[in-house]
Amino acid sequence: MDLAEDFLKSLIKYALDNCMDDLEFLSKRLQEEEKNKPMDERSMELIEKLRFVQENDFVRLPYTEAIEVLKNSNPYKKGKFQYPVDWGTDLQSEHERYLVEKHFKKPVILINYPKEIKSFYMKQNEDGKTVSAMDVLFPGIGEIIGGSQREENYDKLVKRMDEMGVPVHEMEWYLDTRRFGTVPHSGFGLGFERLILFVTGMGNIRDVIAFPRTPKNAEF
Questions:
Q1: Long-range contacts for 27-32 (Cβ within 8 Å, ≥24 apart)?
Q2: Cα gap 110→65, rounded to integer Å
Q3: What is the pLDDT of residues 94-132, one digit of tens each?
Q4: How far, in Å, CA of 83 to CA of 94, rounded?
Q5: What is the rounded distance in angstroms from the CA atom of residue 68 to the CA atom of residue 86?
Q6: Distance from the CA of 155 to the CA of which of 22, 62, 169, 171 falls in 20 to 30 A?
Q7: 191: which residues sit within 8 A by CB, 6+ positions away?
Q8: Buried b (16+ CB within 10 A) or exposed e, 5-33
Q9: Tell me: the pLDDT tens digits for 158-210?
Q10: How far is CA 152 from CA 6, 7, 177, 179, in A?
Q11: CA distance 88 to 106
Q12: In sequence order, which ranges of 34-180 are alpha helices (DSSP H)?
């Protein structure tokens, strides 16, 4: 979690230190694009938003507490969420953005997800219900990084594969990384286009992908 937070802040700091002319242009573009929107629907000014993320500590929030926050929220009580909020369901973008943009008003690292909605290789917590997984949630974006500690125990890994219907015989190559002993280890992946979307303030992710996939655009 610390590495993921430092990683994102370092990237944003680089943009602020080295690309200010571009950021000022993109900020004006965004303000022009949103000038006809009501004030409460407009985005935070781009450079202010980047500095806000860089300068504030990210909130660490267990999934179980996130469900409680959502169930106590006005949107939930007024039936404004499109998707259900129940322990064991995967949070949708509307839930993630509420936590980041309305409740905490800063980036959130959501941790300890129910094991049933996560991959078989994630480290099982001692409660038997959750895994050591994390998602880093950003304003306007939702999940920007996903990661977890990996299950290093061979027997637990095989048992979890059986429970989830993962064909063990096809995964021998993976199990070999545990069979002869391994060390506790973790990893995460950054949504690169989501980062570019956040830094530039663009509204559509296709606008920041060099070769976006759109219907019927591949001739072969």
A1: 27/201, 29/201, 30/201
A2: 9
A3: 999 899 988 998 999 999 999 999 999 999 999 999 999
A4: 8
A5: 9
A6: 62
A7: 143, 144, 145, 146
A8: beebbeebeebeeeeeeebeebbeebeee
A9: 999 999 999 999 999 999 999 888 899 999 999 999 999 999 999 888 889 88
A10: 26, 25, 9, 9
A11: 24
A12: 46-55, 63-71, 74-77, 93-97, 154-163, 172-179
CA torsion 130-109-30-14 (nearest 10°) is: -130
Q: Are 99 and 55 in contact (CB under 8 A)?
A: no
The kind and range of the H/E element at 190 are strand 186-190
Residue 94 CA, chain-centre distance (Å), reads: 13
Domains of the chain: 2-150+185-202 (3.30.930.10)
Could you give the CA distance from residue 60 to residue 110 in angstroms, rounded to a whole number? 6
Task: State how far the Cα of 103 lies from the Cα of 206, in Å rounded to an integer.
Answer: 29
Question: What's the Cα-to-Cα distance from 149 to each of 61, 69, 111, 157, 209, rounded to whole Å?
Answer: 16, 25, 11, 13, 29
Task: Tell me the one-letter amino acid at 88.
Answer: G
